Amino acid sequence: MQIYLPIAEVSVNAFLLLGLGGMVGVLSGMFGVGGGFLMTPLLFFIGIPPAVAVATEANQIVASSFSGLLAHLKRKTVDLRMGVVLLIGGLIGAAVGVFVFNYLKSLGQVDLLVRLCYVVFLGIIGALMFIESLRAIRKMRQSGGVAPAKRKHRGWVTALPFKMRFRTSGLYISVIPPIMVGVLVGILAAIMGVGGGFIMVPAMIYILHMPTKVVVGTSLFQIIFVTAFTTLLHATTNFTVDMALAVLLLVGGVIGAQIGTRIGVKLKAEQLRILLAILVLVVCGKLALDLLLQPGELYSIGDVEGH
């Protein structure tokens, strides 16, 4: 069943969009990530213009992250104070990102920027995640299936000024690193149409040294507001949010997330991470090939005003 997307100006099979939304929803439920870093490239592959894919996917992440946040609030695994500090940085980053996005769009370079950002970030994140997962599996085998105890690190984060106590996380650290992490994620949300969970979660664990149990919930809290703000800016400045596309992806995503959560419970954390890493590297490879290989049609005919 073909459906015309008015903002994207293309016709796409509605069931294909529902299926993509469902598939990314399953991944979201399994791995605890928003899925935007996979969904946006998949939208490129089916012919959605990058500018529309970025703005619309940010819209979908708001709803999927909100449903996840409610579950974490019930379990009391959200550090609201840390979430607000990350959010301040996130809103600043989102404003900067949308400004850069609009400037490059006016130069006609935004599609190239978005694709290059995806190739670089997915390549780095996928490779690091794959190596780390292999090490974790090897250690588990050597220790007879018992995870080795983690040592507490006291790094440069504790030496910086403007310290604040984060009771839920059990931390007393400077607000500067969380704000910097928030700014980076805000910029990525605006330029790449992602929630930034694939950067935020590792940063919260390895840089801020937050307990793993509160990381995902706190990340979702920040992502909701940053992506909502990003969507609003894109909708009012670029007019690139396609609601028909967003609704179909959202319906599929909500159903898929429920299935993914059940699958995720049955798999070990190391197995989940290595599966996600492989998937990220495959998507990265496809995007890189699309950029490097000569397209079938070297020229496209666009409408010229007045002709």
From TrEMBL:
Q: Which domain of life is it from?
A: Bacteria
Q: Where would you find the membrane-spanning parts of this chain?
A: 12-31, 80-101, 113-134, 179-207, 214-233, 239-260, 272-289
UniProt keywords, alphabetically: Cell membrane, Membrane, Transmembrane, Transmembrane helix
The compartments listed are: Cell membrane; Membrane
Keyword Transmembrane appears in the UniProt entry: yes
Q: How does it sit in the membrane?
A: Multi-pass membrane protein
Q: Does the keyword Cell membrane apply?
A: yes
Cellular component, GO annotation: plasma membrane
**What Pfam family is a match, any one?**
TauE
Which InterPro entries does the UniProt entry name for this protein?
TM_pro_TauE-like, TSUP/Inactive_protease-like
Give the family from UniProt: Belongs to the 4-toluene sulfonate uptake permease (TSUP) (TC 2.A.102) family.
Q: What is this protein called?
A: Probable membrane transporter protein
Q: Which organism is it from?
A: Marinovum algicola
From the broadest rank down, the organism's phylogenetic lineage runs:
Bacteria, Pseudomonadati, Pseudomonadota, Alphaproteobacteria, Rhodobacterales
